[in-house]
UniProtKB/TrEMBL annotation:
SMART domains listed in its UniProt record: TIR
Pfam families on file: TIR
TIR domain segment(s): 17-166
GO process terms (BP): signal transduction
InterPro entries xref list: TIR_dom, Toll_tir_struct_dom_sf
Catalytic activity: NAD(+) + H2O = ADP-D-ribose + nicotinamide + H(+)
Superkingdom, taxonomy of origin: Eukaryota
Record-given protein name: ADP-ribosyl cyclase/cyclic ADP-ribose hydrolase
Keywords: Hydrolase, NAD
Source organism of the structure: Protea cynaroides
Enzyme Commission number(s) of this protein: 3.2.2.6
One annotated GO molecular function: NAD+ nucleosidase activity, cyclic ADP-ribose generating
């Protein structure tokens, strides 16, 4: 895991956090463009960001390392893109984020990158709806329900909508 750093002055402290910010995103959609630029800007500003492609070490067990990073972060930024709901990892992360938010109150700052918050909240729109049709065939109903609940909760939060005009 990454070395523990002192909390940034620009982010309030929640106990013994390892990271100021945790990104949850679909690499194929935003990882090599928007998320990379956001990551670089925050890191240059002294904000310690967990992004799996940068902070996981070879040989780390992915699930426990990500769960530890989620638990050890002050702010979570899910970056919703058209393919976000295709990824069981993204959905699993989101469930973890919502669970920790409900118990500890840390801030969730959703970014809707070329997707409508309504489609996230209600799993509508072409990609979200199709993703859940596939998930319902492959996964237990309680797992799919937990994913839907997390998307509904976070999709209902005030977030930044990024579209072609921004």
């Amino acid at each position: 895991m990454a070395e523990q750093t002192q909390p940034s002055s620009s982010v309030s402290s929640f106990g013994s956090s390892k990271f100021d910010v945790f990104f949850s995103y679909k690499w194929a959609d935003t990882g090599n463009n928007f998320t990379s630029f956001l990551y670089s800007g925050l890191e240059k500003g002294g904000i310690n960001v967990f992004r799996d492609s940068e902070k996981l070490w070879l040989g780390d067990a992915i699930g426990p390392a990500i769960e530890s990073a989620i638990q050890g972060s002050k702010i979570w930024i899910p970056i919703f893109s058209s393919g976000y709901a295709d990824s069981q990892w993204c959905l699993w992360e989101l469930v973890q984020i919502v669970q920790h938010h409900r118990s500890n109150g840390q801030l969730i700052l959703p970014l809707f990158c070329h997707v409508n918050p309504y489609d996230v909240q209600h799993q509508t729109g072409n990609r979200f709806e199709k993703a859940f049709q596939e998930h319902e065939k492959k996964f237990e109903p309680n797992t799919v329900t937990s994913w839907r609940d997390a998307l509904e909760f976070v999709g209902n939060l005030k977030g930044e909508v990024l579209d072609e005009t921004k």
